[in-house]
């Protein structure tokens, strides 16, 4: 029996298809509810306020953020989120694969409609703007990226990718947020005047959530950004009169404008940065042009995230939907790199695409695809990146019970390789943030990173222990040293010494029993002193 004939015997996941009706709508409504909560600040881990229907995310005072901004390296990471579930099979095409054409009789990309990455792999001609990058050795393809026991809800799978959790684990922090907090825990509690991360889009993404604050500035859309860059304000108050309703709105807008601490540095960077590339007229390109100006203006932000939506292609996928999005993506990336190259900054940026899941390998009855499992990721940057493939294309024959291929590369291995290799995050921090993941050798260009203040000891963080009410505090020493772990009141007064002794080299977990040590519920500074270094971070005892 052919694979195509077997299609009718493949089980479908309830909720992954439009025709599942209520189940599919519930999937989307769950996502919409969470997006609403995030945008209005009810779900945010940072300081968020919603005024006149718009969201404004503000970095709260945090001792753990200045390190990234003061890092001697000037590398920048650009995350491009393909929202909705990108169809990986029609993005990176295994040429000459009869099974691909058999199971996609109308959606498959024909040989004449693609350009060559290699004799075996191609991309649709709608992405031809990327061809010069590939031929110059400035683009890599990572095949078949996913995770075990995949989830097919837009919201839940997005959160898994953002938090780097297992599919059965719910985390309230993101992989970038945890890395920022843990790596730079020894810096003073000083509010930064530069956002450690910036995201442009409708949602305050979990990726940047730390335990104590969201580590990013969230800008709802380019129009909102231009108001900040040109006026130093989010909201105009001059056109409002003194009637009660407008007076109240005026006060709320003034409060938001006064609370926004990044306006001066963003204005200065935007004014200094000059765009030297012609960007196409699409939403992603506009976002990347903003990122380019901030990088050129030496803002100092290390991580940016931009979003291109519309990838939930259940119907009429090839009717100016997925092809158009591929054009938007490729043209925007090409313009951005051209802009970076104009100021010799191409080697200083690394871009990475990702999506919450892929699509089913079969086309459906509406000439589209439903929610699937993994898919490819694309890296782009300077000539030092090189080109080539990581992993192998998905196996379209030996699939699971739902007709989906098994993933080949865990997405957290990609994250870990970038944190370590591109941003220079300490291996101990990477293991704390992502667990024990196999890094991909040579994925990104090696960097010459300063050892910094955290070379000998790191206060990694804390989390609830297995015993109810107990707290696991994690730290790591690269050299044996006299070490003291203590709690400090927020006014700086010493509160409790948890231990004070010589500790050998290694990674440790200290389990705090608040009742035994007599620690009252409240907010404290957790302090680690070791080898002449002091590390602090905020800690909440419930």
Helix content percent band: 25-40%
Question: What is the total tally of β strands?
Answer: 21
Count of individual domains: 2
CATH top level label of the largest domain: Alpha Beta
User: What is the name of the CATH topology of the largest domain?
Assistant: Alkaline Phosphatase, subunit A
Distance between the termini: 60 Å
Q: Which word captures the global form?
A: globular
Beta content? 15-25%
Structural class, please? alpha/beta
**Main sheet, how many strands, which sense, barrel?**
9 strands, mixed
Mean pLDDT: 82
The radius of gyration over CA amounts to: 24 Å
Second-tier CATH architecture of the largest domain: 3-Layer(aba) Sandwich
Our count of helices gives: 15
Query: What are the low-pLDDT stretches, counting only 5+ consecutive residues below 50?
Result: 29-72, 185-191
């Amino acid at each position: 029996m052919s694979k195509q004939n077997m299609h009718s015997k493949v089980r479908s996941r309830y909720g992954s298809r439009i025709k599942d009706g209520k189940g599919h709508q519930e999937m989307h409504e769950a996502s919409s509810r969470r997006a609403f909560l995030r945008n209005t600040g009810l779900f945010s881990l940072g300081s968020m306020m919603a005024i006149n229907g718009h969201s404004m995310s503000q970095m709260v005072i945090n001792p753990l953020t200045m390190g990234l901004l003061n890092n001697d390296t000037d590398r920048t990471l650009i995350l491009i989120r393909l929202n909705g579930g990108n169809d990986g099979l029609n993005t990176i095409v295994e040429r000459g694969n009869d099974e691909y054409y058999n199971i996609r009789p109308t959606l498959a990309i024909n040989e004449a409609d693609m350009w060559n990455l290699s004799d075996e792999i191609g991309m649709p001609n709608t992405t031809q703007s990327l061809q010069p990058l590939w031929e110059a050795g400035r683009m890599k393809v990572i095949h078949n990226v996913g995770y075990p026991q995949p989830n097919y809800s837009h919201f839940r799978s997005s959160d898994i990718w953002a938090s780097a959790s297992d599919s059965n684990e719910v985390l309230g922090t993101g992989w970038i947020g945890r890395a920022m907090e843990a790596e730079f825990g020894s810096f003073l509690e000083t509010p930064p005047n530069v956002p450690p991360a910036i995201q442009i889009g409708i949602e305050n993404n979990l990726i940047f959530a730390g335990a104590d604050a969201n580590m990013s500035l969230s800008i709802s859309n380019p129009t909102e950004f231009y108001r900040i860059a040109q006026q130093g304000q989010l909201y105009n108050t001059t056109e409002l009169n003194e009637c009660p309703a407008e007076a109240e709105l005026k006060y709320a807008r003034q409060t938001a404008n006064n609370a926004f601490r990044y306006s001066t540095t963003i204005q200065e960077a935007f004014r200094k940065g000059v765009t030297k590339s012609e960007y196409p007229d699409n939403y992603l390109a506009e976002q990347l042009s903003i990122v380019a100006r901030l990088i050129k203006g030496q803002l100092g932000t290390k991580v940016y995230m931009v979003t291109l939506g519309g990838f939930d292609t259940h119907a009429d996928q090839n009717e100016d939907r997925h092809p158009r999005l591929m054009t938007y993506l490729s043209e925007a990336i090409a313009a951005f790199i051209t802009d970076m190259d104009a100021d010799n900054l191409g080697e200083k940026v690394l871009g990475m695409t990702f999506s919450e899941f892929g699509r089913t390998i079969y086309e459906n009855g509406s000439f589209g695809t439903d929610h699937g499992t993994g898919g490819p990721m694309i890296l782009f940057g300077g000539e030092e990146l090189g080109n080539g493939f990581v992993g192998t294309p998905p196996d379209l024959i030996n699939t699971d019970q739902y007709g989906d291929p098994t993933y080949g590369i865990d997405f957290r291995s990609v994250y870990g390789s970038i944190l370590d290799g591109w941003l220079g995050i300490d291996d101990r921090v990477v293991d704390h943030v992502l667990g024990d993941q196999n890094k991909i050798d040579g994925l990104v260009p090696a960097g010459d990173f300063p050892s910094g203040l955290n070379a000998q000891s790191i206060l990694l963080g804390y989390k609830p222990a297995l015993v109810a009410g107990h707290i696991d505090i994690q730290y790591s020493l690269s050299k044996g040293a006299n070490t003291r772990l203590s709690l400090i009141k927020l006014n700086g007064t010493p509160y409790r010494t948890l231990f004070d002794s010589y500790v050998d080299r290694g990674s440790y977990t200290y389990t705090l029993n608040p009742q035994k040590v007599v620690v009252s519920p409240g907010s404290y500074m957790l302090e680690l002193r070791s080898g002449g270094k002091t590390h602090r971070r905020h800690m909440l005892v419930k």
